[in-house]
Amino acid sequence: MGYAYDRGCRCDVCVEDWNEKHRELRALRAAAIAFRTDIKHGTISTYRNHGSRCDACYQAQSEANRRRPSRARGAR
Question: Global pTM?
Answer without folding.
Answer: 0.50
